[in-house]
Amino acid sequence: MQKMVTLAIIALSVLAAPTLGSIGGNFTTELEPEIIGQINQTDVTITPAELSLWMQERTLWQEHAFWTRMAIISMLLDSDSQNPVINRLMRNQQDMAETIAPYYGNETARAYGDLIKNHLLLTIQLAAAVKDQNQTALQNASNKWYQSADEIAKFETNLSANLTQGDRKALWYQNLNLTKNETMQLFNKDYNSSIDTFDRIEEQANIMADSFANAIILRFPERFRHQSNRI
User: Is the pTM of this model over 0.85?
Assistant: First the structure.
């Protein structure tokens, strides 16, 4: 009984969390995709399996945001922590792949992980170009970065009919635009602005996580909505 009550409390927090009112920062309504209205319904019965996937995706996307910032800072400062931090960031692609493997299989998961890995490598290249003030390298890395986002958005929408390529691409572009702004602010030592931007990145990461998790849940309802799996 105590476990059920605990899960119910957590579930309510997850359902309320997409409004992001309790997270702080500088949330702006233009980051809200349509999926938020679908998740934030008081009459929805959430299952432990759904809760687990939502929490997994949120954790992975928060780690993505956090370790990206740490990697950018360590690179710009030429810190001794640079290689260990980048190595930890790169682990994100493996974790993201492993999370979808139970639903789509190992081959699809590996392909997804490879796309995320390429995205992360391009993030590192972009940060290096900013540090070196190499405009040509920066433009090349930026172009490839957005092309990578196109590929990931297409791959993700092929995983579930409940995601549209245009919406997913828009979310990826928001993430990249915010990360690019954050990188330039850190380079220019505008740390207060970079913190404000990171707040928005965290909030936007939750939106990306929730919409992706919800699409998987809708794609495989039998894996999540079994009567014995309800809170």
Answer: no
Please, how many CA atoms are within 13 Å of residue 170, restricted to the half-sphere of its CB?
Answer: 12
DSSP secondary structure, 142-211, as one string: HHHHHHHHHHHHHHHHHH-TTS-HHHHHHHHHHHHHHHHHHHHHHHTT-HHHHHHHHHHHHHHHHHHHHH
Number of other CB atoms surrounding residue 126 within 10 Å: 23
State pLDDT tens for residues 147-188: 999 999 999 999 999 999 999 999 999 999 999 999 999 999
> CB burial class (10 A; 0-12, 13-18, 19+) of residue 40?
middle
Q: Are 11 and 51 in contact (CB under 8 A)?
A: yes
CA–CA separation, 63 and 206 (whole Å) = 11
Q: Tell me the HSE value of 99 on the side-chain side, using a 13 A CA sphere.
A: 26
What separation in angstroms does the CA of 123 have from each of 67, 90, 137, 164, 186? Answer: 11, 11, 12, 24, 14
